Amino acid sequence: xxxxxxxxxxxxxxxxxxxxxxxxxxxxxxxxxxxxDGHVDLEKPMPDSIDPRLPSVYVGQLNPExxxxx
Length: 70
Prior knowledge:
- By secondary structure, the chain is mainly beta.
- 6% of the residues lie in helices and 17% in strands.
- It contains one helix and four strands; from the N terminus they run ββββα.
- The longest helix is centred in the last third of the chain and has 4 residues, at 64-67.
- The relative contact order is 0.27.
């Protein structure tokens, strides 16, 4: 069972034990992401960020650039 993700981390050392994956890329290895301005976009996981403990379910991290408030 996978739980929903509520915590967003911008850790970019994906091999670190402190790395917290926060996206489920279940739609052809992409995720539907809703932005604060209301638009929705398909996003791919960052390279090498897929959780090695669950490689077949594609749980990884979003691009840190889209997580920054501007």
